[in-house]
Amino acid sequence: MAKKKVQPKDDIKDFFTALAEYAKEKGIDEQVFVEKIKSAIEKSLKTSMHVEDKDSECVFVNIDLNKEIFDVSVLKEVIEVVDTLYEPEIEIVLEEARKINPNVEVGDKIRVPVDTHEFKRIAAKNAKDLIKQGFRDVERQQLSEMWGEYENEAVSAVVTRIEPKTGHATIEINHNEVLLMRQDQIPGEILHVGDVIKVFITGVSKEYKEGAKKQSLRITRTDKGLIKRLFELECPEIYDGTVEIKAVSRTPGSRSKIAVISNDPNVDAVGACIGTQKSRINAVTKELKGEKVDVVMYSEDPEEFIKQALKPAEVLRVVINDPHVRACKAIVPDNQLSLAIGNKGQNALLAAKLTGYKIDIKAESKVTPEDLEVIEYPPEPETPAEEEPAEAPAQETAEAQPEEQ
Asked: What is the pTM assigned to this prediction?
């Protein structure tokens, strides 16, 4: 018994319907949507008909979503009869051409309608791929425009997919999908689909380039800027400027340090960040998957700041031997040496990053007189501006610049 022949579905119509819904969901402008489809169909048709190297105007695509118009035509040259050199992709015999336009003559060029159902399978596939690529390009452009003002800010995102082999996560930000690379995730954290996480936007492409593969939105959870933004969210005093974060150092997934100062003598900067019963700092730690955060007091006095940065260790004295070199010795009680250095040197390293000083930690019993020596420099004489030679300042500044650095 012969099988009933099934009529092929109008895949192209269904496809464009789906794309229209997709464009609406993503908020893509309708005109942009149409232009992407036109471009994709033109490229695909030229490729399938082997006319990609011909005049760019040989293919015409007219699409109007509102009027449901979808017309495709190809420019062909009218020839008298079929011969051995006949190229049906770009030529049409006179008899067939006059069915379209009775007034054409041999040598004329005529637009020949193309039945979309005659597209080859590969042509349809190419069109779909090109259109999807076009949408990705538009999404990247929209991300640049939408999130440009949020560069160096933290935003909430939902995990929508996890790549089992690489560990890369796809997250959704305001209905747009962005890739969070494994190296940009906190070491040791395991993300799951549906998780709501905070990500730090480290950069947004300033220029949109057609077909660019690089993501417009660059996000991470390992940047030290995320620490600052999380405390701003948890601590109103930081958000309104009463408490200021002056410096941050971080070893992602392990430990961080932040230095804070209060602009109001009645507000305890460290206490404000920690919160009642450690509620605020615990909220930050939870978001960072258990990463510990030390909050210390900032000071304009480098010696005092270094003491604070090495907490929880007690520091007896900080000696800056040469004020022109950002290096110092921190003297601690013998029983505090391990605490000051930290596990694998982590506490000392974070303190150095926080203060910008190279810190040599020494136990009190090991200190020598040389460790306490400080180089004294005579004060620089002040020269009245009006007495300086006209060309001298430029030469003196150039020579002094390296010492100042």
From this structure: 0.60
